Amino acid sequence: MTPAAVRHPAADATAPSHAPGTRDRYLGAALMLGSGLSNQVGAATGALAFPVIGPAGVVAVRQWVAGVLLWAIGRPRVRSFTWRQWWPVLSLALVFATMNLSLYTAIDRIGLGLAVTLEFLGPLTVALAASRRRVDLACALFAGAAVVVLARPQPTTDYLGITLALLAAGCWASYILLNRVIGRRLPGAEGSAAAAGLSALLYVPVGIVTLLRHPPTVGTLGYAAAAGVLSSAVPFLADLFTLRRVPAGFFGGFMSVNPVLAALVGLVILDQSLGWAEWLAIATIVTANTVSVRSASLPAIRCR
Q: How confident is the model over 44-84, as pLDDT tens digits?
């Protein structure tokens, strides 16, 4: 994240060297919308396999598919890595493994829209914590109030699901911070690709045990594999192309649409409806990030 925007691991390497034109912005917006939609449709598709192999089985297959694809794209030269390069990669692999399992389990318990909204607090917190502006403090207070609404005590409140979604948020924040380190120590996408590959290896025993205990159907494996492609490989490539066309601030601001997309995709594919209070909380968190991003990108006004 920039002061108020998510920083992609390849952002520094792919940021446009010139001011983007109108065509670049439109193309970038289309790519970002496609990336976000692909990510949420992938998560919803993976959720269709939960009744057969559970979140752990889906995450294992997803990690295997994503690890192979991202390793092929990034082509990390792991034999040349030094320990100074290895430790953030290993840490990122653990973050990948924890983030996806906690998020998918949260989706199973509280639904796609709420889980992704709470997860989005991770990058928002990183952005706001690095700022000392009053507008960002106000945004943080509004986002915090929205979380209280989402987690308010009710007979049906699933506190474990909320906790797991917040754990995924913490992992996403760690992902951003670790990628800043990796981006300075490894070229291109080598670090992220190596971490994805290692995360896939971590899920080999988990996946074997889970799939042996809960034998999957061909369709179930297809759903889980689709989640790996749609939620990892497609957004990764789309973001790489996007960051060559638009500023990182514009990128981060547009990412605010993800919780809304998640809620809509959850409604259409998984038949997960939300009440007016949940929609209001989602809109508040999205608005808080958008306001913070837009105000950060405005030029300072100098007094003469």
A: 999 999 999 999 999 999 999 999 998 988 889 988 999 99
pLDDT per residue over 23-32, tens digit each?
766 787 788 8
Distances (CA, A) of 181 to 15, 78, 173: 17, 17, 13
CB 74 within 8 Å of CB 192: yes
DSSP 186: S
- Residue 2 pairs in a beta bridge with 5
Alpha-helical regions (H) of the chain: 11-14, 22-47, 50-74, 83-110, 112-119, 121-129, 134-150, 159-185, 190-213, 218-228, 234-242, 248-254, 258-269, 276-297
Read off the pLDDT band of 270 (50, 70, 90): very high
Q: Other C-beta atoms within 10 Å of 14: how many?
A: 19
Phi then psi dihedrals of residue 5, to 5 deg: -145, 150
Q: What tokens does 95 get?
A: 């973050």
List the Cα angle 170/172/178 in 5-degree steps.
105
